[in-house]
Amino acid sequence: MEAATALEVKDVSPGNAEEPQTSPRQGARSPISQILSPIEEHPKICLPRALRQTYIRKVGDTVNLLIPFQGKPKPQAIWTHNGCALDASRVSVRNGERDSILFIREAQRADSGHYQLSVQLGGLEATATINIMVIERPGPPQSIKLVDVWGSNATLEWTPPRDTGNAALLGYMLQKADTKSGLWFTVLEHYHRTSCIVSDLIVGNSYAFRVFAENQCGLSETAPITADLAHIQKAATVYKTKGFAQRDFSEAPKFTQPLANCTTVTGYDTQLFCSVRAFPKPKIIWLKNNIDIQGDPKYRALTCLGICSLQIRKPGPFDAGIYTCKAVNTLGEASVDCRVDVKAPE
């Protein structure tokens, strides 16, 4: 921000017919003294480049401004603050042959304003204006309020601080803390609005929020905290069961693998296999030439997981014939046959 810096030289001598008025700050200078001390060099102020824009200091900092000027013989240097005389209890001035020093040991916000240096020599005057702004941390936002909570999100609003620290606000910093850990984590920085939505909060936790104001000096020393906690509730899970009809597995016996014809050798054990499917579990009956052979020690019948087997122990010529496996349950029956031939060893 460019300061309204004025550098000008005025001829305020009594002999100027167009401007007969004399500056009140020329004091006791008389035409006789001007004749005794002729002006060899007109007054001029060399304002440093850094002071041509607003000079910013923090509260408590030292202000030490050295302003060079020209003029011969030695001109008179006069400082004013906002058009009034300086407060000698706070501001010190030292005027040299070629410069003037303005010194404030510990700057306060009341020291902000327009400082004008006037260099007078005879009927001539040069002026320069310096803008000084003393700033400090802003006050905290006035309040913060939890507006709404939905899902894993929370809406917040707050009001700006009453005191900005004599400087423009750079934004706000928002923090969150869950009640389990109590630790504060930054959510937003340099945020310019006074409302926001905080997302991705953890389900099952409860959160508090606080907000700081920020300017060129930094963050406010304190921050308001939300009076209410944001409780992130776990959504109730509703399980919908699909209706289904109970399947009826009842089935009449059905052979999935039939018996196979075979030829065996006299004296060598032989086994017959088949498989059946049925529910309820069927009763298995073995027949030879349509005669039930259950209980005959020459035969051994087994049934496991629907697989039916019949072992013929050391068959002889009389064991040849048609073998039948019959399965029976309450829903029906089924049977399979095979032919077994027995031959003499070669």
From TrEMBL:
Subcellular localization(s) per the UniProt record: Cytoplasm, Myofibril, Sarcomere
The protein's name in its UniProt record: Myosin-binding protein H-like
Primary localization: cytoplasm
GO biological process assignments: sarcomere organization
Keyword tags: Cytoplasm, Disulfide bond, Immunoglobulin domain, Methylation, Phosphoprotein, Repeat
Start-end of Polar residues biased regions: 19-30
Organism: Hipposideros armiger
The Fibronectin type-III domain, residue ranges: 140-235
Gene Ontology CC terms, in alphabetical order: M band; myofilament
UniProt function note: Myosin-binding protein which plays a role in cardiac function. Seems to regulate conduction in the atria and ventricular conduction systems.
Region called Disordered, residue ranges: 1-30
